[in-house]
Each structure stands twice: as structure tokens, then as C-alpha cells.
Design the sequence.
């Protein structure tokens, strides 16, 4: 069988932030309840609060994909 990638995107409203770590851990538990070997996250450069959030969930920095995500604001 080939590799399968699931892409989960999250946007938390300000009022939901107190539960964000619990939600993140629940998503990771869900992911590992399926036959997968790895969960990874891609973060837009400069979003330090997102980086800190992912570190607190247990993610480890492994590399950088330069210009992998383009933003239009």
C-alpha cells in the first residue's frame, strides 16, 4: 500500500483558545488511532505562537520547506 496523507486545518476563534491544547491533543490521539506512523505540521513562517503551540503538543522541529505556502493578504 502507498502512503496516505491527511491534511487537517484548524482555525480557532479567540473564545476557543482555552480549550485549544485539549483539542490539539484529541486530534493527535485520533490520528494515531488509525494505521499511521507519523503526524506532521506545516507552519507559515513567522507565526511564533503557532510554533509554540505545536511544541507544547509534542511536535519536534525537523526541517524547513521554504516558500511551500504562499499567503495573499
Sequence:
Amino acid at each position: 500500500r502507498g502512503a496516505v496523507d491527511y491534511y487537517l486545518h484548524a482555525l480557532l476563534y479567540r473564545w476557543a483558545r482555552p480549550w485549544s491544547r485539549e483539542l490539539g491533543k484529541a486530534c493527535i490521539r485520533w490520528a494515531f488511532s488509525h494505521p499511521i506512523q507519523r503526524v506532521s505540521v506545516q507552519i507559515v513562517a513567522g507565526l511564533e505562537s503557532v510554533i509554540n503551540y505545536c511544541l507544547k503538543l509534542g511536535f519536534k522541529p525537523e526541517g524547513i520547506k521554504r516558500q511551500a505556502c504562499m499567503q495573499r493578504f
